[in-house]
Amino acid sequence: MNAIPPPLISLPRTAYTGAALMAGERMLAEETGIALSYDGVTHAVMMASPADLEDFAVGFSLSEGIVATPAEITDMEVLSRAGLGIEIRMRLAEIPGSRHVRRRRALAGPVGCGLCGIESLQEAACPADPVLSDFRAWPGAIAEAMQALCDAQAMNGQAAAVHAAAFWRPAEGLVAIREDVGRHNALDKLAGAMARAGIGATSGVVALTSRVSVEMVQKAARMGAPIIAAISAPTALAVRTAEACGMTLLAVARGECFEVFTHPARVIGV
Hints:
12 strands; molybdenum cofactor biosynthesis; cytoplasm; sulfurtransferase activity; Ubiquitin-like (UB roll); Sulfur carrier protein FdhD; about 270 residues; eight-stranded mixed β-sheet; alpha+beta; elongated
């Protein structure tokens, strides 16, 4: 049985400051699949930080109405599954046996969780589709794409609580943008809009207002996007996934500055 991974990990990156390049490292948050099971039945798999897992299990059980008090969880075991994630096994006291089964059927996945409801750690840990595009962009193009994303957020301009995902191409600028309160929902909407319009994603940049977690890389890779750029930092798993599938991952993109975590050759001059 493998040890539980640390919640933070330092990974190399190249920072572009608008005028110079600087090699170094950034501390990134780790994310992993956490399978929650009750009396031998898997309830959900969540992507989460591998820290305070007992607190997470109890809090999730309470907030989902699976138990009324922590005392109803009579036993808990946290198991690391090599290369897959973590399983938290819980045993419940003698309460109406259908309670968590009914609740499981009703669990639709709260906004922002990303991978709620997936039945197995194998599915949560599946590799991203390979990205084969030879598209390249100048550093200034990244700043232009992120600014265009910010300027086009109509819903967020009114509500200040909405994420966006956009597709940008050098010759056309912003091709499409979609907004949603959930970052992964926004990306799904963008993918759907582009597919319906017959627009391919292999010659541009997918720009995000959010952090980059593993499901964002998986979704963008499925679109065939060669570059994903985000305002916030990625998780360590997102970096590993982007590296493995051949995607260029840029993050912490603010103004003319950004950090390149994978496949920097797609950014000209980096």
